[in-house]
Amino acid sequence: MSHDRSTCLFCKIADGLIPSTRVYEDDEFVAFRDIRPAAQTHVLIIPREHIPTLADCGENEAPLLGRMFVLVARLARELGVSYTGGETGYRTVVNTGPGGGQEVYHLHAHLLAGPRPWQRMG
Ligand code: 5GP
Ligand code: ZN
Predict the structure, then answer these.
(1) Is residue 121 part of a domain?
(2) CATH number for the domain including 89?
(3) What pLDDT, on a 0 to 100 scale, did the predictor assign at position 55?
(4) How many domains does the chain have?
(5) Would 120 be classed as within a structural domain?
(6) Which residues of 33-44 are buried (b: 16+ CB within 10 A; e: fewer)?
(7) Rounded CA gap, 7 and 115, in Å?
(8) In sequence order, which residues have a C-beta less than 8 Å from that of residue 101 and are 6 or more positions away?
(9) Which of 30, 33, 36, 110, when mutated, tests ligand 1's pocket best, judged by the most ligand atoms within 8 Å of its CB?
(10) What is the pLDDT of residues 84-109, one digit of tens each?
């Protein structure tokens, strides 16, 4: 898997060069359905900026990361899977590097929700 922007799958998805089922987009972020969903709701939230991994983030990326997680919470509400008490809620996952199970080297957060069992990431 390439770490280079020019061959990056998620840059191509963000640029609309590869189709995806988008659930949200703005100037800074794109969110789309995972092609191989592990749960009933499985959305990936990515910055348009090519940042390979969370390990590449420092203080400069703190505002972007903050907005990214606020967007996760907003999309969870809009998709009807937010935590509203009782047994509701969702999981947010950021895999980092081979040791973390990262397959696509463009920073992304997984938003997972729905009835168990999940296919993976459960
Ligand atoms: P990672 O393992 O890097 O955290 O997660 C990458 C995710 O991207 C996987 O869950 C995988 O199913 C998803 N994925 C890989 N290729 C594509 C694609 O072309 N389109 C979409 N929508 N998701 C993809
Ligand atoms: Zn990229």
Answers:
(1) no
(2) 3.30.428.10
(3) 98
(4) 1
(5) no
(6) ebeeebbebbbb
(7) 35
(8) 95
(9) 36
(10) 999 999 999 999 999 999 999 999 99
Closest-lying ligand 1 atom to the alpha carbon of residue 94: 4
Closest CA to 61 of 47, 44, 43: 47
pTM: 0.97
DSSP H or E run through 72: helix 62-78
For 7-52, write each residue's pLDDT tens digit.
Answer: 999 999 999 999 999 999 999 999 999 999 999 999 999 999 999 9
The answer to the question of residue 46 being in a domain is yes
Range of the domain at 79: 5-113
From 8, 54, 104, mutation site for ligand 1 pocket: most ligand atoms within 8 A of C-beta: 104
Residue 118 lies in a domain: no
